[in-house]
Amino acid sequence: MESASEMVPFPLLITPIESNYSACTIPYRFPSDNPRKPTPTELSWIDLFLNSIPSFKKRAESDATVTDAHIKAEKFAQRYAEILEDFKKDPESHGGPPDGILLCRLREQILRELGLRDIFKKVKDEENAKAISLFSDVIRLNDAIEDEGKRLENLVRGIFAGNIFDLGSAQLAAVFSRDGMSFLATCENLVPRPWVIDDLDTFKLKWSKRSWKRAVIFVDNSGADIVLGILPFARELLRRGTQVILAANDLPSINDVTYSELIEIIAKLKDEGGQLNGVDTSNLLIANSGNDLPVIDLTGVSQELAYLANEADLVILEGMGRGIETNLYAQFKCDSLKIGMVKHPEVAQFLGGRLYDCVFKYNEVLSL
């Protein structure tokens, strides 16, 4: 069901007045920049979105659920390219100046207006089925690690490995189309630590000392990301006594998992007793975040999520869109974790890291 209620600020976010919250991590322009001339950062991101058009067009053309999909795909490609070229001439056109949120929103708006509501549905379903078939093996490997710190690191590496399944990245879309993805091989071949932002050792210490009572996890992609990355980690939190709220998108966007899809995935993974490979799931909740983009502005989430999250003491933003390109520097009233893989060269350059580098940013809020 699509969320129809009014959006509200995420209650654990330190408000914009208190923290100067800006959803976008990378500053696209400064007050001193000419409002009529695009900045170098704006131009590089406009080009990034231009380069993604062919892969989106290809997905749209192959959507068998849409009448005249090839015609609509061509219209999408033309309209979106024209808007992006307009931004190069006048950054204040189309509601600009452009940033990652606006560029994503305009792309989704055009797709939906043309009736192309979920062009990645087929590949999402295929990847979910593959990942579900591997879930028990991944759990068995994790559970066999007796050392708590090593098991946690293995779970974290699984999140990074799963997160590489991202069809919003033109480079990764091409690799996936050609080779597919091997989850276990990706786990073994992550860039070596220290990562570009690496607070894992600090998080391990906190993990060993206490359990959080309630965690909110903003989830990202379908397939290996949600099933083999996030769910084993969530299961471990459940096993430690933490209530876990998984917040998923309201509407489809790229290959991000939606609220309704996540409910189906969890139902398929549970056994007859409602357990996830021996762990009780009565404390696992699925929430509709109200979001409809691969990035998120936390000044507007669903009332349902706001209510469920109100007393959480851990917030996790997973994925490049929600945890790196937006909200990397967001401040919360509780402990927070931003975790994701760097899949755009522009982001790697901004962070001073490598392409496919990893971000594990942990902020602890000390009790008064």
Automatic annotation (TrEMBL):
Damage-control phosphatase ARMT1-like metal-binding domain ranges (all copies): 52-359
Keywords in alphabetical order: Hydrolase, Kinase, Manganese, Metal-binding, Nickel, Transferase
Gene Ontology cellular-component annotations: cytosol; nucleus
Pfam families to which the protein is assigned, alphabetical: ARMT1-like_dom (PF01937)
Domain of life: Eukaryota
Native organism: Quillaja saponaria
Protein name, as recorded: Pantothenate kinase
One GO BP: coenzyme A biosynthetic process
Entry keyword annotation includes Glycoprotein: no
Transit peptide recorded as keyword: no
Molecular-function annotations in GO: ATP binding; hydrolase activity; metal ion binding; pantothenate kinase activity
Cofactor(s) demanded: Ni(2+); Mn(2+)
